[in-house]
Amino acid sequence: MKVVEIKPDVFWVGAIDWNIRDFHGYSTYKGTTYNAFLIKDEKITLVDTVKAPFFSDLMHHIQQIIEPRLIDYLVINHVEMDHSGSFSQVVDAIKPEKIICSEMGEKALINHFKRSDLPYEVVKTGDTIKTGKKSLQFIETRMLHWPDSMFTYIPEDKLLISSDAFGQHWATSARFDDEVPFDELMNHAAKYYANILLLYSPLVQKLLAKVKELNLDIDMIAPDHGLIWRKNVSAILDAYDRWSRQEAKRKAIVVYDTMWHSTEKMAKAITDGLIDEGIETMPMSLKVFHRSDIMAELLDSKGLVVGSPTINNGLFPTIADILTYMKGLKPVGKIGFAFGSYGWSGEAPKIIFQYLSEMKVEQIIEEPIRIQYIPDHEALKKCYDLGRKLGERIKETV
Ligand code: FEO
């Protein structure tokens, strides 16, 4: 496929991974891309590489513009393997004069690839390297997504190459945000934020403040995954501000799994209560929804209710999975409760209660609601009433 000139003499030369469906535990139903950018200037610069199996795609794309051996500088904004998996092959192919990265980037590259003899040039926030007519300015973005991460900004083009930030896992034939439906794009961007960056939200807030302080003139953001933002730059910056403040709306999710449909009956009754309070909601069975889709829905939900049957004195395995994953992503400011059905011991709802406490969820009942065997009308009424109670509490806060 043809390369795309995103700015004068700046080309998208990355790769499209149409078939990936699991990205370290994140369901990528529509694949992803590994974006890399070639800057044609007096010093020819490649910003980022691609995942190892896509090395030949990258080389093929570069070859449409220049002989890869003519590349002078290689910028590594981020060392995670989806961007640096082909690092060694690329370095051997182009033999760059400089490999530009952050201090942590140099350490991570050497730790990954055992190539300490390469011409690394460490940069920090505020450093600029001229490539000729253009300049590369660097902004370290520690933990967004790894300690080594940084942005590369080209002031002459008002172009921010943003590595993982502002990305989306979406493989398409389009390269720009204005070539795809906006709502679908924002859904992909939100899911990406919820699953990749949510736990670093305080750092995202600091980064947005830093970008403001640096007074960067940006009219294009080119992330390393998905579509390039040129029409909706302010929309994605505003969304990152909202998401990193974990701003929620009158919405709740009821996450559960079930063995013999008792916990499911409880989940539906709770959902009914929420609906009757006017709360946007849905029951999310782990048999139907992937953990990463649950995180995407949780991003703007004020309410979080989790239920599990008890099995082998503990949680249903899928509930253990989602709670571990969710806790690690550090959602904040949620309100909810724990529930579940059981036969004789009934530990699962208590364990969920503990998880929710550790996640600092404001729990509207002091103990989880537990129903033995099959919930009868009275038990389901209790669940329904709790749904309504949660709805009322959400409306008091949002
Ligand atoms: Fe897309 Fe943190 O790698």
Summarize the structure.
The protein is α/β, with parallel strands linked by helices and 398 residues long.
Describe the structure in your own words:
- α4 links the parallel β10 and β11 (120-122).
- The strands form five sheets. A seven-stranded mixed beta sheet has the order 1-2-7-8-9-10-11. Strands 17, 18, 19, 20, 21 and 22 form a six-stranded parallel beta sheet that branches. Strands 12-13-14-15-16 form a five-stranded mixed beta sheet, with no helix packed on it.
- The model has no long low-confidence stretch (mean pLDDT 97).
- α6 packs across α7.
- With 398 residues, the protein is of the alpha/beta class.
- It is built from twelve helices and 22 strands.
- MU-OXO-diiron (FEO) binds at residues 78, 80, 82-83, 145-146, 164, 224-225.
Secondary-structure-based class equals alpha/beta
> Ends: how far apart?
48 Å
Give the helix level as a range of percent: 25-40%
Share in β-strands: 15-25%
Tell me, briefly, the overall form. Answer: elongated
Unreliable segments of 5+ consecutive residues: none
**Number of separate helices:** 12
**What is the total tally of β strands?**
22
Biggest β-sheet: strands ordered side by side in the sheet:
1-2-7-8-9-10-11
What is the C-alpha radius of gyration, as a whole number of Å?
A: 24 Å
State mean pLDDT (0 to 100 scale): 97
Largest sheet entry = 7 strands, mixed
| Bound molecule kinds, no repeats | MU-OXO-diiron
